[in-house]
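Anyone able to model this chain together with nicotinamide-adenine-dinucleotide?
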Amino acid sequence: MTDKVIVFGSEGFIGSHLVEQLVKKNYKVKAFILYNFTNSKGWISNIDKNILKQVEIVFGDIRDYQSVNSAIKNCDYIINLAALIGIPYSYRASESYLDTNVKGTLNILNSSMSKSIRKIIIASTSEVYGSGQYFPIDENHPLNAQSPYAASKIAADQLALSFYKSFQLPVSIVRPFNTYGPRQSNRAVIPTIISQHISSSKILNIGSLDTIRDFTYVTDTAEGFICAIKSKKSIGEVVNLGTGYALSIRDIIKIVSEATEKKLIVKVDKNRKRPAKSEVNKLLSSNKKAEKILKWKPKFNNKNGFVKGINYTIKWFSNKENQKLYDSKKYTV
Ligand SMILES: NC(=O)c1ccc[n+]([C@@H]2O[C@H](COP(=O)([O-])OP(=O)(O)OC[C@H]3O[C@@H](n4cnc5c(N)ncnc54)[C@H](O)[C@@H]3O)[C@@H](O)[C@H]2O)c1
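re: yes, here you go
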């Protein structure tokens, strides 16, 4: 019988790509979408229509035990991507981050206790490490929350691991480093650079130019979650998903400029900078454990892979139909 996977946060950036890839790999997919009054299905509405036909959709709220408990019935695997992810917004709405990221994860764990779930895969984030203390960052690197968002993700990871240790609940933590690609919110740095670049030669809305990140193309990140389903060794483990290649924001602007053959005038927007102690200066992933335990290797790796991924992303953001799907080019938080 075909395995059934429920994806929480399915209508988001990574979730929508993951749903597409799961269906292509013949999994039965239930897409859990945050209930909303417009009946919006988020990015799930934009996936290939033939794929969409095969997806079971359920509306609910991860903060609500009852909706989680009924949604996961008869599922073999759970992947939890549902979260509030913006770091600036976490400075001013920390309680909602706790409710969604921590209580939401707890609801999944508690409701899984009475079911025969084969694996519960929790999406963590490289932000839990804080500014790297050594490189590449492996899974033994200390955890250091520099934002309420990171603190909420550490709490969720630890809760999940505690359920594995206390109750043998089959939990895996997958820890993506920064992800980029089509459908990402304009709050994130790469869409910010690309979409402003398309409309003018100026980039007006950039925070720090010197922060360094390890960027994974979204289809590689989605594939990492599928590898976590398949792995026989991922239960009770934390595994990083990163390329092992890092770039500064300044480097990325240069690559976008070269790809589009457009000259750029960069203006730093101080309002986009994080408070000094909250800034995570550098993240660069070790992916040795991912290769060993998940058999995962990013297809878009090194500089060539990044340039290829950036070109796909530019192409997607340059499409006028796709631009219409964004309400606003500028986010204040
Ligand atoms: N994008 C990245 O670079 C990145 C890097 C590392 C980790 N992650 C993690 O990956 C996951 C997905 O990130 P993303 O970039 O796709 O973010 P996203 O904001 O596009 O998706 C998050 C999804 O969670 C849903 N959600 C929020 N509150 C909910 C609730 N109460 N109930 C049900 N659903 C709810 C949203 O509707 C959305 O679909 C998150 O857990 C994030 O922490 C993302």
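The first strand starts at residue 4 and ends at 8.
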